[in-house]
Write a structure and sequence with these properties.
With 227 residues, the chain is mostly helical. It has 2 domains: 62 residues, Winged helix-like DNA-binding domain superfamily/Winged helix DNA-binding domain (Arc Repressor Mutant, subunit A, Orthogonal Bundle); 146 residues, GntR ligand-binding domain-like (Four Helix Bundle (Hemerythrin (Met), subunit A)), CATH 1.20.120.530. Strand 1 and strand 2 form a beta hairpin. The longest helix has 30 residues. It is globular.
Length: 227
């Protein structure tokens, strides 16, 4: 772990939230690699906080399968190629349920928020800034799902997005073969604005299935090389 692993920390969070968010982000972005040992004292020093909130944050990360505890050692959890492929189906199922509920209950305020993300996606696309486009794309899909406003479903979805993003980074997967599609996301947005659950599910499934087919293809090649 380098001294510059973590970013400047926002002051509005409590110390446990700071530790949780920063360590989790370092794992998802693969600054902490699978198998890396996590030392509470070192993490606390890097974050500029005491060991107690770091310890509590790590307990939460253990419960979410980002960190593994063996005896007294804490390490970043492994990533299985097979498990990631299986997870794609679960993640899609969760999104399909969430967007159906969201389309029924979405508020004007939520619509405007999603539209602002979509506009940011379009700006990134037209600027050919595909790195930022990918971030906004992930945020759009996550926020679409979270508008379901069902707490236990939101928790499961947030977890699935985090593990999904970590695997994309770890296996260095491409999200599209040539260029991303803006039309798919406009169709999803229109379905939500029209409070049309069936159309929202249809457009989401079409969009996700194209991406997931590409992920499965890339993962099949990785798994083949591992055998």
């Amino acid at each position: 772990m380098s001294p510059n692993t973590f970013n400047v920390l926002p002051k509005y969070k409590n110390k446990q939230e700071i530790a949780y968010d920063e360590i989790k982000n370092a794992i998802i972005t693969c600054r902490f690699q699978p198998g890396d040992q996590l030392v509470i004292r070192t993490l606390a020093a890097q974050l500029g906080i005491s060991e107690i909130p770091v310890r509590e944050a790590l307990k939460r990360l253990i419960s979410e399968n980002y960190v593994t505890e063996n005896s007294s050692a804490l390490t970043v959890s492994a990533i299985s190629a097979d498990d990631f492929v299986d997870m794609l189906e679960v993640k899609l199922d969760l999104e399909m349920i969430a967007i159906k509920v969201a389309a029924r209950n979405i508020t004007d305020e939520q619509i405007e928020y999603l539209k602002s993300i979509l506009e940011s996606m379009e700006e990134c696309y037209h600027d050919n800034n595909l790195k930022e486009y990918r971030k906004e794309h992930s945020r759009f899909h996550l926020e679409c799902a979270l508008t379901c406003d069902v707490p236990y479903l939101m928790t499961a979805i947030s977890s699935s997005f985090g593990h999904h993003e970590r695997a994309i980074n770890y296996f260095n997967l491409s999200s599209w073969e040539q260029q991303p599609s803006l039309q798919d996301h406009s169709d999803i947005m229109n379905a939500l604005m029209n409070h049309d659950p069936e159309a929202a599910q249809k457009h989401l499934h079409e969009n996700r299935e194209r991406a997931y087919t590409l992920y499965r293809k890339q993962m099949a090649e990785i798994i083949s090389k591992q055998q």
